[in-house]
């Protein structure tokens, strides 16, 4: 992060050596997934906190802008249905995001082609309602996510839904200035058709 950006978020910085220790130097045994930003690892901090780490990889289709957006949004947004950002690391040319670890992974893994036990309809409804509450909070906080999909809805140990992955999000202040998104972004199959066809991003 550049110096002007770093100041408000200094309290969220985590030393790289702490993350090396938490993951046994990013041992592949701790590797649990791969996303648009990079590899995802599980780990345990010195105080016993279980964490998930997203570590940028050069072949990723995301980068510094998404890294900064994620930190900025999650540093001021807090809600029971949003994943919690514990911190970030930008030492040694690294870009690493650190979150609370979600014991039950992402919603997609429970819905498609998995050996995991089937969820009850009551659980599914609670997850839908939880995700909707998280989105409502974001919209009332002037944030539009732009990439809501099952893999970006995580489930904690009690199957409480937590929205994650805010790298493509837009703040309403940006919309007030431009009215149009300069580039349609998101995942095909989950994009709002009106936004996809017109390129205009609104709260609706």
Model description:
By secondary structure, the protein is of the alpha+beta class. The protein has 2 domains: 3-100, Phosphorylase Kinase, domain 1; 107-198, Transferase(Phosphotransferase) domain 1 (Transferase(Phosphotransferase), domain 1), CATH 1.10.510.10. The chain is built from 7 helices and 9 strands; from the N terminus they run H-H-E-E-E-H-E-E-H-H-E-E-E-E-H-H. It has helices at residues 3-6, 16-22, 64-76, 107-111, 121-140, 172-178, 193-198; strands spanning 31-34, 38-44, 50-56, 85-89, 96-100, 143-144, 153-155, 161-163, 170-171. It has a 5-stranded antiparallel beta sheet, with helices on both faces. A two-stranded antiparallel sheet has the order 6-9. A two-stranded antiparallel sheet has the order 7-8. It is globular, with a radius of gyration of 17 Å. Residues 1-7 have low confidence and may be disordered.
The portion of residues forming beta strands comes to: 15-25%
From the coordinates shown, what is the CATH architecture of the largest domain?
A: 2-Layer Sandwich
Structural class by helix and strand composition: alpha+beta
Total helices: the number is 7
Mean pLDDT: 82
The biggest beta sheet is recorded as: 5 strands, antiparallel
Give, in order, the helices and strands. Answer: HHEEEHEEHHEEEEHH
Can you tell me the CATH class of the largest domain? Alpha Beta
* Domain count: 2
Walk me through the topology.
Blueprint lengths: L2 H4 L9 H7 L8 E4 L3 E7 L5 E7 L7 H13 L8 E5 L6 E5 L6 H5 L9 H20 L2 E2 L8 E3 L5 E3 L6 E2 H7 L14 H6 L6
Family: Belongs to the protein kinase superfamily.
Keywords: ATP-binding, Kinase, Nucleotide-binding, Serine/threonine-protein kinase, Transferase
Protein name: Putative Pto-like serine/threonine kinase
């Amino acid at each position: 992060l550049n110096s002007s950006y770093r100041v408000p978020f200094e309290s969220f910085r985590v030393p790289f050596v702490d993350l090396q220790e938490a993951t046994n130097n990013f041992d592949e045994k701790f590797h649990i997934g791969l996303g648009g930003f990079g590899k995802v690892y599980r780990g345990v901090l010195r105080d016993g906190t279980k964490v998930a780490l997203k570590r940028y990889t050069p072949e990723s289709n995301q980068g510094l802008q998404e890294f900064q957006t994620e930190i900025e949004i999650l540093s001021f947004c807090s809600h029971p249905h949003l994943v919690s950002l514990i911190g970030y690391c930008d030492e040694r040319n690294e870009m690493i995001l650190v979150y609370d670890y979600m014991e039950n992974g992402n919603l997609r893994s429970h819905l498609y082609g998995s050996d995991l036990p089937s969820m009850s309809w009551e659980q599914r409804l609670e997850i839908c309602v939880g995700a909707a509450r998280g989105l409502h909070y974001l919209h009332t906080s002037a944030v539009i996510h732009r990439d809501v999909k099952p893999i970006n809805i995580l489930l904690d140990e009690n199957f409480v839904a937590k929205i994650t992955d805010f790298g493509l999000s837009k703040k309403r202040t940006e919309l007030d200035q431009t009215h149009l998104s300069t580039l349609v972004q998101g995942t095909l199959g989950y994009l709002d058709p009106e936004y996809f066809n017109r390129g205009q991003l609104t709260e609706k």
